Amino acid sequence: MIGQNIKILLIEDNLDYAQLIKRILSKKASSSMEVEHHVSFSAGYERASGGGIDLILLDLDLPDSDSIETMLGIGGGADIPVIVLTGADDESLALRAVQLGAQDYLVKGQVDARLLVRSIRYAIERKRADDAVKRSEERFKLLIENALDLIEMLDVDGTMKFVSPSHKRILGYENDELVGRRVFEFIHPEDLPSIVDIFTETLQNHDRLYSAEFRVRHKDGYWVTLESIGKLCPPELSNMGVIVNSRDITERKKMEERLRSLSITDDLTGLYNRRGFLAFADHHVKAAERRKERVLLVLIDLDGLKQVNDAFGHNVGDQALIDAAQLIKRTFRHSDVTARISGDEFVVVTTDSDGNGEEAIKRRIDENLHNFNSMTAKPYRLSLSYGIAKFDPRLPSSIDRLLVKADELMYANKNKKDDQANDNVFNLNTSINE
Predict the structure, then answer these.
(1) Which of 207, 266, 363, 420 has the fewest CB atoms below 10 angstroms from its CB?
(2) How far is CA 227 from CA 86, 214, 411, in A?
(3) Contact partners, residue 344, CB within 8 Å, separation at least 6
(4) Helices (H) and strands (E) in the chain — how many of each?
């Protein structure tokens, strides 16, 4: 501020006092202070509106002023700091003026050069500091109001004290529908326990950022998946609670799920592929081992697929695979792990709680095959060979070992059917020759 030219507007109807102020500022100020004097509020208001003024010295006892609010509007309207001048018996009025926005007040008769210059300097610097804070607040407000992400300020019990306008766009709620309510009311029940744990940890550590993914209920009733980062305010601002920044990742999660599904699902039949089967079957077997349950691994081969392809083409062969997959799905429970692991091979892992599962599976496969073949008008008949390996929790075994055992049993079943077919051909030829 030193060395700068300061333009002061003095509004004072006492000419002698106005001259005193001018002399003080011309002699005692280290900076160049130029004083422009007006004797009425109306004239001073008009001049202030014209701009180019750094500070207003305003007498509170002007003949053409009607209220202190109107008088202080001279500074607010032109965005100029105001110091009020008051008589000794008007100090309460001066305090009221400061409450309404004046930077300072000076009591006439007590003003000396040092006090006047210091008050002017402080008022101007304070105004600059206030302007800087306002600009910062306006920028912050602009960022918050236009943020694409959700921004929340939570109390220590999870009550929402502030929510950004983006909540309306992403979640459908108006601000007054959220502020004052606990954020936990809107979180999916399956995700709530872990989120409460994370929130509790956040309250205990000022230095760490905590992140989480969870589902939040949209106003229309469906679930939106959010990715959130939360942090406890520093100790000096601890009464503010937790600040949380969240973004909508619903579409990303859907895409991840689609990609995951593609990576573990057989395109043709919709069953798991080998990768999916190994992942889920291993989990299935380990869970059964913990529960001391028996498990059956059923390896199924679609007989005669090459002959169907050769006779009718691969499109018809693909349809035979689809029909076989649908038949297998009807045979087993929805909770069973069902997969196509190679061109014509399928595999299923199912629990055997009562020990009679093997015979029940054979019966259901045979019944479903009979029903399909008796009702279909397609140019092929489905035939399935299968082997069933047993997992005993008392004698743990790996999925690979169960597959090897089931493969041996499946080929034994296939060879048995081939032998029966050959016997039928032999008997038919013998009857013809006779």
Answers:
(1) 207
(2) 59, 7, 51
(3) 301, 302, 305, 321
(4) 13, 14
Query: Rounded CA gap, 27 and 283, in Å?
Result: 91
How far does Cα 268 stand from its chain's mean position? 35
Q: What is the pTM of this model?
A: 0.47
The CA-based angle 57-95-111, given to 5 degrees, is: 45
Q: Give alpha helix (H) positions in 243-356.
A: 250-264, 274-290, 305-312, 314-331
Sign of CA dihedral 29, 33, 34, 36: negative
The span from the CA of 422 to the CA of 417, in Å, is 9
Query: What values do phi and psi take at 37, rounded to 5?
Result: -110, 135
Torsion sign across C-alpha atoms 318, 321, 323, 326: negative
- Give the C-alpha separation, 151 to 244, whole Å: 6
Averaged pLDDT, 204-233: 90
Give residue 158's identity as a one-letter amino acid code. Answer: G
Question: Which residues are registered as beta bridge partners of 104?
Answer: 83
> Domains of the chain, with CATH numbers?
5-143 (3.40.50.2300), 147-253 (3.30.450.20), 265-433 (3.30.70.270)
Strands 223-232 and 242-248: antiparallel
